[in-house]
Amino acid sequence: MTTPFGTLNPSPRLLLGPGPSQISPRVLRACATPLLGYLDPEYLALMDETQALLREVFETKNAWTFCAPGTGMAGMEAAFINALEPGDEVLICVQGAFGERMVEIARRLGAKVTRVDTEWGRATQPEQVAEALRTARPKVVALVHAETSTGVLQPLEEIARLAHEAGALFLVDCVTSLGGMPVRADAVGMDIAYSGTQKCLGAPPSLAPMTFSPAAVEAYHARKAPVPSFYLDAGQFWRYWGPERAYHQTGMITMIYALREALLEVHEEGLAARSARHRRNQRALIAGLEAMGLTLLVPDPTWRLPSLTTVLVPEGVEDKAVRGALLEKYGIEIGGGLGRLAGRGGRGGRGGFGASG
Amino acid sequence: MGYASQRANVMFFLAALGDILKSDRVGEALEAAAAAADAPDA
Asked: Fewer Cβ neighbours under 10 Å: the N or C end of chain B?
C-alpha cells in the first residue's frame, strides 16, 4: 500500500546550536536496542548503572538522583514544584531567559518571588544576593549555572554560601553545564539541581537528570501538602528509582539506554578532560569569530560558557537570514537570540559529540 | 555529517559563516582559530 507520507529520512545536519547537540553513533545505536519492560530486572540494573553514572557527573552522593521524564524544562518545573508551596518565598537571580522562566513557574505555583536582576550577558554578583537577603527570607534561592540565552557561566560558591546562611535551599539549573564542565553539586552546596540530556551529555532530548540533597529531601517530607503534580513528584520518582521499585510511570526505556551510553562516554573520557576539550574548542571558536570582526555578547572572558557562545549580529545583517543560509547551504544549525536578545544574537553550542576531538 | 572532530566543526562553521557574511577575513579567522586550538591549556 502506498502512502503520501514517504520514508523517514532526515537531512544530515551539523547541530551546532544550543541543543539538541550531535549524538555519537554509539548513542544512536543504543536508541535502536530492543525494549525491555520497565520492571524487568535487566532494565532495573541498567537504571541503577545510569543512576551511579548520574551521581558521578553531578559529583554528588545524593540518594535522590534520577531523571524526570521530559526535557530540561520538565526538570525546572519539577525542581520548583517539589521545593515550593503557595505562599513560600523564593529569591531568583535573573540574568537571561531561563531565569525569567524560573520566575514564571514560581509565580504560577503561588510563591512570593524576589528578583535579583542582572544585565543580560553578565553574571549575578554575590553582593546583589546579599543585599536582597537583608530583607527577603526565602525558602529557596535559585539561579542558572549556564544561561543558555546569553552564554554566561555563573559562579556559584559564594551565592550558595549566602543562601545556606539565610537558611534557604540552593536550587541550580545545570541544563547547559552538566557533562560539559564540572558542576560539583556537593562541593558547591546545591540542594536541588537539574539538567537536560540533549546538550553537553550528548543524548537525545526528553530526560531531565535531577539530584536532591538530604536537606532538600527533608524539606520535601516537611511539605504541608502533597506536590500538586503527581507526574513530577520527586518522591514518586524515588519510589521507582529507589529500592521500592514502585510503579509511577512507564519507564523511558530507550532514553535510558541512550543516556546510559552517553554517560559512559563522559565516564570514559573523564570530566576534567571533557571540560578542557570544551574550553579548547571555545578558545578556537572565539578567536575565529573575533578575527572576523564579530562581537561577543559576554564581555568578561571569565563569564563565557565553554559550551555555548553568543555572538551579536552585525549591523545591517538579519540573524534569521544568516541562520537560514547556514542550514540551507551547509546543513549547519545554530540558535537565534532568545527573549530580549531575539534578532540580536546567534548562539553556537559545543556540547555533546559535536564537541569531540 | 557532524562526526568530524570538533576542531573540524569549528573550522567548517567559521568558513561557512564567513562565506554567508561575505567576510574578507575568513583566512585570518581560520588561522586564529587554529592557533587558539593549538595553544597549551592554561
From this structure: C
Spatial CA neighbour of A84 closest among A222, A199, A275? A222
ipTM attached to this prediction: 0.94
Dig out the grid coordinates for A85 from the structure.
508551596
Q: Residue A314 pLDDT more than 90?
A: no
Q: Give the Å distances, CA to CA, from A348 to A104, A226, B2.
A: 26, 41, 14
Instruction: Return the CA Rg of chain A.
Output: 20
Which residues are CB-contacts of A304 (< 8 A; sequence separation ≥ 6)?
A151, A152, A153, A282, A286, A296, A298
Average pLDDT of chain A to the nearest whole number: 94
CATH number belonging to domain A25-266: 3.40.640.10
* CB-based burial, A299-325: b 16+ in 10 Å, e otherwise: eeeebbbbbbbbbbbeeeeebeebbeb
What is residue A304's DSSP assignment? B
Nearest-CA distance from B27 to chain A in Å? Answer: 9
Q: Where are the alpha helices (DSSP H) in A201-318?
A: 214-221, 234-241, 253-269, 271-291
Question: Residue A45: its pLDDT value, please?
Answer: 98
Backbone CA torsion sign across A93, A95, A96, A100:
positive
CA A259, CA A278: separation in Å to the nearest integer?
Answer: 20
The shortest CB-CB distance from A16 to any of B9, B26, B36 is to B9
What is the least distance, in Å, from the CA of B22 to any CA of chain A?
A: 11
C-alpha cell at A316: 545591517
**Architecture (CATH level 2) of domain A14-20+270-355:** Alpha-Beta Complex (3.90)
Hey, is the C-beta of B16 within 8 angstroms of any chain A C-beta? yes
The shortest C-alpha distance from A266 to chain B (Å) reads: 16
Q: Tell me the chain A residues in contact with residue B3 when contact means C-beta distances shorter than 8 Å.
A: 22, 24-25, 353
**Hey, where are the domains in chain A?**
14-20+270-355, 25-266
- B36 to chain A, any CB pair closer than 8 A? The answer is yes
| Mean pLDDT computed over A100-106 | 98
Say which range, A183-197, A205-219, A343-357, has the weakest mean pLDDT: A343-357
Q: Which of the four pLDDT bands, split at 50, 70 and 90, describes residue A342?
A: confident
